[in-house]
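Thread: adenosine monophosphate complex, take 2
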Amino acid sequence: MSECIFCRIAAGEIPAQKLYEDEECLAFRDIEPVAPTHLLVIPIEHIQSQAHAMEEHEALLGHLMRVAAEVASKSGLTNGFRVVANTGQDGGQTVNHLHLHVLGGRQMHWPPG
Ligand code: AMP
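Output below.
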């Protein structure tokens, strides 16, 4: 059994509120939302972070971005949203399985914390 929590969600071993799933990726609700809508888009394949993605993952990374926009739209984020990939320690990554945060439902601010 994998020790990676997102691999376990992808395998159906841990429940999640899934919004989208295909052979390459999965989108589900973040368990500790920081915005009215807070979704995560993950590849099924375990890739530690964006910094670990290889040339062979280019199409997959593009797919994740497109699915992020699709689930944002389906969630009613017609006024915009933010996509974030926290990467590594300084990036604030806490789960070491590449994921896109899709945040919306309120005004986002810049610079981020
Ligand atoms: P990051 O800090 O960028 O690595 O993001 C990890 C995110 O995963 C956090 O926003 C957590 O709230 C979220 N998270 C952790 N465990 C779960 C879970 N079991 N189901 C849904 N989201 C989770």
